[in-house]
């Protein structure tokens, strides 16, 4: 059943297909969603109609509010009720987030804001969508890797993003190598491993440098396996890189055993 709400608001409506009067007064007979076209379209996937015919309770109403709040563009929800012969309609009036005025980055010494925004699907002029925003923030490490070949750079938590109305600030950490620790090898072999790894301290880790160094290490005699683990100091923005080696027992293996991908 569809009906016109007003010329100012078009609603997404759900209703129960039963005869009039067959549902008690305090049963949920339908829903109306008032908001922008994008809000109404997103609400269609929330399956609010699952509660149709159920008792009208605070829990049921709040369940609908919680579902609507999963829409990234939704800022606030005001609830009204409309009584009909079939029961009560719940009217959700959904207010959208503000338009993004500006996006600023801090801590991005190795990449400009223009480079970051060129690869992210967020921009001033868009309605703020929290789902989209944090999804794109999670992509920042991949942008660093694709554009600069830099490992371990990005916004480290939701606290790295601050929102003031339509102004967004994203704090980025570009982790720099502090120390390199080699485990599983001693003496001359450990020294050879360290010489094979050309990883400058105090700088961001480049993917090609790390993979090239690991490849060189794997060519050394008696190296059977290599595992590496970065340990992060978020306060200082530094990495302690731990290299775990497994040494081959028995005769030395021939050089040039692998290929660098």
Briefly summarize what is shown:
By secondary structure, the chain is an alpha/beta fold.
What key phrases describe this protein's structure?
single chain, 261 residues, alpha/beta, Ubiquitin-like (UB roll), 3 domains, 12 strands, 31% strand, disordered N terminus, disordered C terminus
What does this structure look like?
By secondary structure, the chain is of the alpha/beta class. It has 3 domains: 11-96, Roll (Ubiquitin-like (UB roll)), CATH 3.10.20; 102-174, membrane protein fhac (Ubiquitin-like (UB roll)), CATH 3.10.20; 176-247, membrane protein fhac (Ubiquitin-like (UB roll)), CATH 3.10.20. The chain has helices spanning 37-43, 58-69, 113-119, 130-137, 140-148, 187-196, 207-218; strands at 11-15, 28-34, 74-84, 87-96, 102-106, 153-154, 161-164, 167-171, 173-174, 176-183, 223-233, 238-247. Helix 6 (187-196) packs antiparallel against helix 7 (207-218). It is elongated and about 90 Å long.
């Amino acid at each position: 059943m569809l009906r016109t709400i007003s010329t100012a608001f078009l609603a997404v409506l759900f209703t129960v297909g039963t005869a009039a009067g067959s549902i008690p007064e305090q049963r949920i007979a339908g829903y109306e969603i008032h908001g922008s076209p994008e809000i109404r379209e997103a609400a269609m996937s929330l399956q609010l109609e699952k509660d149709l015919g159920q008792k009208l309770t605070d829990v049921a109403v709040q369940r609908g509010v919680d579902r609507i709040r999963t829409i990234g563009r939704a800022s606030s929800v005001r609830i009204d009720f409309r009584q009909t012969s079939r029961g009560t309609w719940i009217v959700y009036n959904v207010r959208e987030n503000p338009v993004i005025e500006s996006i600023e980055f801090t801590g991005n010494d190795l990449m400009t804001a223009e480079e970051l925004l060129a690869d992210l699907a967020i921009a001033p002029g868009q309605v703020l969508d929290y789902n989209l925003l944090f999804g794109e923030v999670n992509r920042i490490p991949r942008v660093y890797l694709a554009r600069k070949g830099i490992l371990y750079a990005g916004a480290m938590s939701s606290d790295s993003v601050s929102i003031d109305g339509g102004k967004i600030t994203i704090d980025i950490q570009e982790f720099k190598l502090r120390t390199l620790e080699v485990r599983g090898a001693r003496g001359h072999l450990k020294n050879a491993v360290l010489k094979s790894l050309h990883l400058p301290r105090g700088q961001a880790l480049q993917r090609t440098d790390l993979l090239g160094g690991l490849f060189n290490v794997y060519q050394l005699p008696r190296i059977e396996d290599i595992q590496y683990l970065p340990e992060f100091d978020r306060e200082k923005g530094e990495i302690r890189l731990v290299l775990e080696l497994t040494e081959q027992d028995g005769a030395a293996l021939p050089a040039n055993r692998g290929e660098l991908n």
